[in-house]
């Protein structure tokens, strides 16, 4: 009989998520030893990372001994290196970390108009321009989101996060423009998968932007049906482009 065990983080994991589990192990961010002990005692052979941790947690870690050893081996402390090291530690226990999109393939962005008004030809060109820029900034590990308007880059996401970049771009563009969200080249889909959720749509609409462009097959639309309904209500375009 299958069981669901959740390793939950204080102040990060939503109560409605833990309510779905057969067993929950609470811990703070940085308690790698407790995480590995929970994985081992659960008897699991597979694990999936769900949700996200606030970016500032990378600088507010209170690591236990196992985490200190892991951190000492890592030269660049970004999501890919940190989570990759955790995945390796889980694999050493016989627990395979599956892609975060497993069971969610139907929630990935598709090619073309997903919801909202159809784009005009010049707007599609702007979206494609933004896609090229975003793929380059993501390759440099700066950020995976940009805001563009009329062939001009208004904002590039960095450590501040997607929504702050959207607000900044909307303000600079004084209305109009597009948010473009992509994956990194060779993105490890086991973790740090680019996501568009309800708050992203609300922030884009409040910032006066025209729509959100997502890399098809690589960006997760959380609760796609609800997002499409929300986009139609906001008259905000959701559009997918194959990179």
Oligomer: single chain
Judging by the overall fold, what is the CATH architecture of the largest domain? 3-Layer(aba) Sandwich
Tell me the CATH superfamily of the largest domain: LpxI C-terminal catalytic domain
Q: Give the integer mean of the pLDDT values.
A: 91
User: Would you list the SSEs in sequence order as H and E?
Assistant: EHEHEHHEEHEEHEEHEEHE
How do the strands line up in the largest sheet?
Answer: 5-12-10-8-6-7
CATH topology of the largest domain: Cytidine Deaminase, domain 2
Runs in which pLDDT lies below 50 for 5 or more consecutive residues are none
Annotation field: number of helices: 8
Rg of Cα set: 19 Å
From the structure above, extract its key features.
243 residues, alpha/beta, six-stranded mixed beta sheet, two-stranded parallel ribbon, 8 helices
Detailed description of the structure:
This protein is α/β, with parallel strands linked by helices and 243 residues long. It has two domains: 5-97, no CATH class; 105-241, LpxI C-terminal catalytic domain (Cytidine Deaminase, domain 2). 36% of the residues lie in helices and 19% in strands. It contains eight helices and twelve strands. The chain has helices at 15-18, 32-42, 65-72, 79-92, 121-139, 162-173, 198-206, 224-234, and strands spanning 5-9, 23-27, 46-47, 96-97, 112-115, 145-149, 152-156, 178-181, 195-196, 211-215, 220-221, 237-241. The strands form four sheets. The protein has a six-stranded mixed β-sheet, with helices on both faces. The chain has a two-stranded parallel sheet with strand order 1-2. α6 runs parallel beside α7 and α7 packs parallel to α8 (224-234). The longest helix has 19 residues, at 121-139. The radius of gyration is 19 Å and the shape is globular. The model has no long low-confidence stretch (mean pLDDT 91).
